Amino acid sequence: MSKLVVVEGDPVNGTDRHNVTGMTTSNPPVPYTGTAEFTYSGSMTQGLSDLVRIDDVPVALVTSRSTLPPSETAPPLGRHSGPTGSSFLPPAPVPQPLSLVITDVPLGTGTPNAAAGSALLTINGVKVLLDGDPIDTCSGIGAPAGSKVSAQGQPFITCTA
């Protein structure tokens, strides 16, 4: 089965889990410490091939990185900011969303999972990323492969995995 080759700007989407702190909704409020799930909606932006381009766009490699745009990490509306967390652990006492802050750093970077990359296509010995490859996003608890990259920047170069 053939897959499209990933290039700069291709989207990386999924979820990851982060450590959060804030206050609870109890009366009186008490400090909350736990983890929450967040939406990851970034793109391949760093560590791209200097050698190979497709339609003048750099190819993504297993050494490339994804990042989140600043709007995704800006509270209170960014989907990767404390107030937008979900699936809290512990679930009770319930945290106050607007009080929550992600405590993990760095925030926003994704790296290709060890299972990512073409078994056949390499650039200078480094595997090329393919559509659907798993990406380990910035999970603060070390959970791998919370996201996937989707090839959308070029519609014509494919590789047989």
Rg from alpha-carbon coordinates: 18 Å
Pattern of helices and strands = EEEEEEHEEEEEEEE
Binned, the helix content reads under 10%
The stretches of 5 or more residues where confidence is low (pLDDT under 50) are: none
**Proportion of strand residues:** 35-45%
Mean pLDDT: 93
Number of alpha- plus pi-helical segments: 1
Q: Globular, elongated, flat, extended or rod-shaped: what is the shape?
A: elongated
The biggest beta sheet is recorded as: 8 strands, antiparallel
CA-to-CA gap between the ends? 7 Å
Tell how many strands the DSSP assignment holds: 14
Which structural category do the helix and sheet elements fall into?
Answer: mainly beta
